[in-house]
Specification:
Elements (H helix, E strand, L loop, with lengths): L3 H6 L5 E3 L8 H9 L4 E4 L5 H14 L4 E6 L5 H10 L4 E5 L4 H8 L4 E6 L2 H9 L5 E4 L5 E2 L5 H11 L4 E4 L5 H9 L4 E4 L1 H4 L8 H9 L5 E4 L7 E4 L2 H10 L6 H8 L2 H6 L24 H17 L7
Parallel strand pairs: 1-9, 2-3, 3-4, 4-5, 5-6, 6-8, 8-9
Antiparallel strand pairs: 7-11, 10-11
This protein binds ligand TUI.
Length: about 325
C-alpha cells in the first residue's frame, strides 16, 4: 500500500509513530523506521541535550528516514528547535502549539515541517506558512488533545488544505488505516499501539496499564488550564479531576499538582501517582509485538478490507 507520502518521505508504509514524550526514544523510532514506517523521537519536556543524544543514537541505528517531535509548550522549546536545525533533521513534527516562529529556520535548510493540528483554522494557517503536511489529530488521541473527533476533523481538514493530511487519534489497526484513507488522509500516525512495542523502553507497568485498559478507561482532564490531556483513569487522575472542579484550588496549584507526572509514569512506572497518557483505542491494544509485526499486521489488514470494499456495491 502506497500513498504520496511514501515517495515524498522515503518510507515504505504511510505510518508515523507518535512522538510520545518520555517514551519515543531512538530505540522505538529506529525500530519503526527500520520496519518501513516513520520513526519519531520525542523531545517532550526534556532539555535539548537529551534530544541531541537520541538523534546521534538513531543515526547509528538506522539509515532510513526518521523525524523529531517538538512539544511547543516545553520550557526548552527554543533550544530544542535550535538543536533540530543544527542537526539538520529532515522531518519535524510539532505539537501542542503554533510553530510559525520556527518555520523559516527549519525550511531554510530543506526540512519538511509537519504540524499537528486540532482545528481547520490552524491547518489552513500552517499550509500558508509552508508546512509540508499536517497531522489532523482527533480528541480520541492520548496526551494533549483538542475537542473534535478524528472522524469529524480529518475530512474537514482535507477539504481546507491542499497539502497531505495524516490522520491521528483512535487508530490502532488496519480498520483505522482504511477509515483514515477513506476520510481523505494520505497516512496515519499511531501512538498507543507503538507504546506496547517490544522495542519501546517505557516502564513495564505503563505497558500493562495500556494492555489492560478497556474502551472507557481513559478520560481527558485539565480543560480548566487550557490544555486538556487524555490519560488512563487512576488514583492521580481522579485526584486531579476533583481538584479541577474545586474552586478553592487555584490554577497554579492545579498546574503544580500535575507537574512531573508523565515522567513518573513512563520511567518509574508509578501506577498510583503517575499520569499514564493513552488514547481511547487502548481497549483494542491487547498484546506486545515488535514494531515490524505491528506495521505489517496493520497494513495487511487494511489491504484486505479495502480490497473487499467493492462488495458494498451491487
Ligand atoms: O502534543 C500532543 N500531545 C501531547 S503533548 C504532551 S506533553 C504535555 N505536557 C504538559 C501539558 C500538556 C502536554 C502530551 N501529549 N499532541 C499534538 C497536539 N497538538 N494535540 C493538539 C495540539 C494542538 C493544540 C493547539 C496544536 C496546536 C494548537 O494550537 C494552539 C495555537 O497556539 O494556535
Amino acid at each position: 500500500m502506497k500513498t504520496i507520502l511514501c515517495d515524498a518521505l522515503g518510507i515504505k508504509f504511510p505510518i508515523f509513530q507518535g512522538g510520545m514524550a518520555w517514551i519515543s526514544d531512538a530505540s522505538l523510532a529506529a525500530a519503526v523506521s527500520n520496519a518501513g514506517g516513520l520513526g519519531i523521537i520525542a523531545a517532550g519536556n526534556a532539555p535539548a541535550d537529551f534530544l541531541l543524544r537520541e538523534i546521534r543514537k538513531i543515526k547509528s541505528m538506522t539509515d532510513k528516514p526518521f523525524g523529531v517531535n517538538i512539544m511547543l509548550m516545553s520550557p526548552y522549546a527554543e533550544e530544542v528547535a535550535q538543536v533540530i536545525a543544527d542537526e539538520k533533521v529532515k522531518i519535524i513534527v510539532t505539537g501542542a502549539g503554533n510553530p510559525a516562529k520556527y518555520m523559516k529556520m527549519w525550511t531554510e535548510y530543506g526540512a519538511k515541517v509537519i504540524p499537528v493540528v486540532a482545528s481547520v483554522a490552524l491547518a489552513k494557517l500552517m499550509a500558508r506558512s509552508g508546512a509540508f503536511a499536517v497531522i489532523s489529530e482527533g480528541g480520541e488521541a492520548g496526551g494533549h488533545v483538542g475537542d473534535i473527533t478524528t472522524m469529524a476533523l480529518v475530512p474537514q481538514v482535507c477539504d481546507a488544505v491542499n497539502i497531505p493530511v495524516i490522520a491521528a487519534g483512535g487508530i490502532a489497526d488496519g480498520r483505522g488505516i482504511a477509515a483514515a484513507l477513506m476520510l481523505g488522509a494520505s497516512g496515519v500516525q499511531v501512538g498507543t499501539r507503538f507504546l506496547v512495542a517490544t522495542e519501546c523502553n517505557v516502564h513495564e507497568n505503563y505497558k500493562s496499564m495500556v494492555l489492560k485498559a478497556k474502551d472507557i478507561d481513559t478520560v481527558s482532564t485539565g480543560k480548566r488550564l487550557g490544555h486538556p490531556v487524555r490519560a488512563i483513569k487512576n488514583n492521580f487522575v481522579r485526584e486531579f479531576s476533583s481538584k479541577e472542579y474545586d474552586n478553592s484550588v487555584s490554577d497554579s496549584e492545579l498546574e503544580k499538582f500535575g507537574e512531573g507526572r508523565l515522567k513518573l509514569a513512563a520511567t518509574d512506572g508509578d501506577t498510583k501517582e503517575g499520569c499514564f497518557l493513552s488514547g481511547q483505542i487502548a481497549g483494542l491494544v491487547n498484546r506486545e509485538q515488535t514494531a515490524k509485526e505491528i506495521i505489517e499486521e496493520m497494513f495487511s489488514q487494511a489491504k484486505e478490507i479495502l480490497g473487499k470494499a467493492g462488495s458494498f456495491y451491487e
